[in-house]
């Protein structure tokens, strides 16, 4: 599992509990905990990334996709109010969601196309020796 976006903040501890439940094979317990989190509509994008990646690592790609999509929609609605924090979370979610969508062999959507454009630009910069991060 990845580190939280802000190293000074700890993600919701239930994210780690969710991971432990899945690793222990308690899928029902993990789902109940995830449902509890979902009902609270967390404002922290890390929650959606952590839970989505927990499901991805457990092989439940449909549920991973669901969590990453929920998180992306939540962060998109918060970008105006929260600025960089929500935008950073949205960026991570769209990239993670792309990975899961490719594994599920889903057709490209707008978010996937953004990731492909960004990756294409990175590859072009590598071939020409240029930098795309300036």
Shape: globular
Task: Indicate how many domains the architecture comprises.
Answer: 1
Sheet bearing the most strands, described? none
N-to-C series of helices and strands: HHHHHH
Distance between the termini: 29 Å
Query: Radius of gyration, rounded?
Result: 16 Å
Poorly predicted residue ranges = 1-8
**Structural class by SSE content:** mainly alpha
Mean pLDDT: 86
CATH architecture tag: Alpha Horseshoe
CATH class placement: Mainly Alpha
Give the helix level as a range of percent: over 70%
Beta content comes to under 5%
- How many alpha or pi helices? 6
- Tell me the CATH topology: Serine Threonine Protein Phosphatase 5, Tetratricopeptide repeat
Give the oligomeric state.
single chain
How many individual β-strands?
0
Give a verbal description of the structure.
There is one protein chain. The protein has a single domain, classed as Serine Threonine Protein Phosphatase 5, Tetratricopeptide repeat (Alpha Horseshoe). Helices cover 74% and strands 0% of the residues. The protein has 134 residues and is an all-alpha fold. The two termini are 29 Å apart.
Secondary structure layout:
Layout (H helix, E strand, L loop, with lengths): L12 H11 L3 H14 L4 H13 L3 H22 L1 H20 L6 H19 L6
InterPro entries: TPR-like_helical_dom_sf
Organism: Blastococcus jejuensis
Protein name: Tetratricopeptide repeat-containing protein
Core attributes:
Serine Threonine Protein Phosphatase 5, Tetratricopeptide repeat; single chain; about 0% strand; about 130 residues; mainly alpha
